[in-house]
């Protein structure tokens, strides 16, 4: 049996060496290591040996098996390498690979995600609205008079069927209050559209994030507190915030929100035009008329709302001097944010 084994090994060695394709390897492997192989048969014939001779012979068989496997694997790798070389003669597989460049987030996306995170940490949920809206959600339910100039074609893009591209994310306040009873605590970031010519601080497409909180006992101090929390997390603990009286049809009282200038800390500079303050957006206490339109009892509930401009925040955070830069998508700008989350 030992002779048979030795002859078989010699033959197998020659045959493996002669293999030229992956298929040859498979066939040779089946022939010498498969079920019907001589080697397998020899395992079966061990019982014919004296018990004392069995261990040594078993070892021989195992070694033979290992030897065949090693030869087959080596030949198989050689064949693979050979076929690569044939197909791609110019390639040198020992060269290091080309680094693939990862994309990144657009600065507006980075800021939007940060805003989401800040408000989620403050207990808000995220609500989705619609880009194409109707006059009810964009104007009527927001207590906007029929002759309000913002309804004008010069300000609002109208589409077919009396619909329009929303001019503000305040529409989502209405959609949320239509569907849910208080307590409500949501933000809604999204795209808005206005018939504006692009300039350093305007774009016909821009982004806002709306906030709405409705519950029993909500007051103006909840608004200022939320604003201050947001400003410190977003721009640093030293940033201060304030509100100034203003007017919006859907809030009473209404306010504009400012933060202390992030460039000069309030001393006055070019960024804040010498005032020391930067305008962040509109805010106020939800007008009881809005609650009435939506069937929320204004005797029981009060609420605050605000809307922030996302471009403004991105421009301040990343020192971008002109809003149009955010929409041109020049790779020299975008590459600065590659890989950033
Ligand atoms: N929607 C207003 C705008 O686009 C901003 C705004 C003002 C939002 C007051 C509010 C608010 O939620 O309470 O100019």
Would you kindly provide a written description of the structure presented here, covering whatever features stand out?
- With 341 residues, the chain is an alpha+beta fold.
- It has 2 domains: 2-85; 107-337, 2-Layer Sandwich (BirA Bifunctional Protein, domain 2), CATH 3.30.930.
- The protein is built from 12 helices and 9 strands.
- It has helices spanning 2-18, 22-33, 38-44, 54-87, 107-121, 135-138, 170-179, 220-235, 288-294, 310-317, 325-328, 331-334, and strands spanning 125-126, 132-133, 164-165, 184-193, 205-215, 241-248, 251-260, 277-286, 302-309.
- The strands form 2 sheets. Strands 1-4-5-9-8-7-6 form a 7-stranded mixed beta sheet, with helices on both faces.
- A hairpin with a 2-residue loop joins β6 and β7 (251-260).
- α2 packs antiparallel against α4.
- The two termini are 69 Å apart.
- The site of 3,4-dihydroxyphenylalanine (DAH) has 12 residues, from β8 and β9.
């Amino acid at each position: 049996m030992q002779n048979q084994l030795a002859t078989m090994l010699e033959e197998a060695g020659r045959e493996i060496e002669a293999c030229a394709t992956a298929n040859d390897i498979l066939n040779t492997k089946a022939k010498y290591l498969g079920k019907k192989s001589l080697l397998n048969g020899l395992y079966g014939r061990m019982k014919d040996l004296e018990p004392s001779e069995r261990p040594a012979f078993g070892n021989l068989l195992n070694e033979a098996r290992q030897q065949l496997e090693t030869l087959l694997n080596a030949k198989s790798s050689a064949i693979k390498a050979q076929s690569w070389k044939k197909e791609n003669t110019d390639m040198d597989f020992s060269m290091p690979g080309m680094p693939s460049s990862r994309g990144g987030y657009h600065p507006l996306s980075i800021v939007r995600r940060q805003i989401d995170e800040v408000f989620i940490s403050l207990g808000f949920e995220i609500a989705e609205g619609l880009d194409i809206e109707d006059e009810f959600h964009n104007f009527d339910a927001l207590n906007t008079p029929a002759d309000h100039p913002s309804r004008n074609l010069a300000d609002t893009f109208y589409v077919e069927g009396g619909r329009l591209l929303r001019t503000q994310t305040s529409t989502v306040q209405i959609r949320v209050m239509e569907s849910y009873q208080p307590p409500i605590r949501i933000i809604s970031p999204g795209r808005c559209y206005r018939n504006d010519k692009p300039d350093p601080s305007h774009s016909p497409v821009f982004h806002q994030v709306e906030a709405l909180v409705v519950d029993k006992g909500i007051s103006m101090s909840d608004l200022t507190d939320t604003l201050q929390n947001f400003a410190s997390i977003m721009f640093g603990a030293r940033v201060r915030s304030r509100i100034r009286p203003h007017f919006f049809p859907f809030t009473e009282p209404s306010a504009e929100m400012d933060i202390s200038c992030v460039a000069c800390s309030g001393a006055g500079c070019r960024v804040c035009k010498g005032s020391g303050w930067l305008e962040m957006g509109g805010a106020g206490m939800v007008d009881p008329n809005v609650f009435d339109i939506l069937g929320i009892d204004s005797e029981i509930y009060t609420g605050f709302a605000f809307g922030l401009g996302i471009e403004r925040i991105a421009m301040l955070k990343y020192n971008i001097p002109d809003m149009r830069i955010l929409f041109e998508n020049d790779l020299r700008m975008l590459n600065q944010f590659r890989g950033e989350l």
